[in-house]
TrEMBL record:
A GO molecular function held by the record: hydrolase activity
Taxonomic source organism: Caballeronia udeis
Gene3D superfamilies: Hotdog Thioesterase (3.10.129.10)
Hydrolase in keyword set: yes
Name of a matching Pfam family: FlK
Lineage summary: Bacteria, Pseudomonadati, Pseudomonadota, Betaproteobacteria, Burkholderiales
Name of the protein this chain belongs to: Fluoroacetyl-CoA thioesterase
Keyword Hydrolase assigned: yes
SUPFAM superfamilies reported for this sequence: Thioesterase/thiol ester dehydrase-isomerase
Length: 133
């Protein structure tokens, strides 16, 4: 059983694919050349998932089920950004984390994120059934 206070950190250097501008799909879409919120959320989820590794059994993984995130500062290309997740509580099947992301200039985002443990084969089968529904 995981205990409140458990922490994990993951870091990355911002790449071209992580930029908000990489999400533009049409000529009329224009986004800045800064770290995108989706890429930052992915980093924050990775920190939470890393914290949960010891709770996983054979064939299990953790998935995100709820996020409340505030992305307040921009981060430029090639800058190192880190996310630190702290387990705040376990509530039934949900593992709740407080997460902070920072670059060398300080905090860029905060989030409250919940994860659940699932069987990896079963969740992929459920997704396939939804494809053909």
């Amino acid at each position: 059983m995981l205990e409140a206070g458990l922490t994990a950190t993951v870091s990355m250097h911002v790449r071209d694919a992580d930029l908000a501008s990489a999400f533009a799909e049409t000529e009329v879409e224009h986004y800045p050349h800064v770290l995108s919120t989706p890429a930052l959320l992915g980093l924050m989820e990775r920190a939470c998932a890393k914290a949960m590794v010891s709770a996983l059994g054979e064939g299990q993984l953790s998935v995100g089920v709820n996020t409340d995130m505030s992305h307040t500062q921009p981060t430029a290309l090639d800058v190192l950004v880190s996310a630190t997740a702290t387990l705040s509580k376990v509530e039934g099947a949900l593992y709740w984390f407080d997460v902070e992301a920072a670059d060398p200039a300080g905090i860029v985002a905060r989030a409250r994120h919940a994860r659940s443990i699932v069987d990896h084969v079963q969740i992929e089968q459920r997704a396939e059934r939804r494809r053909i529904a």
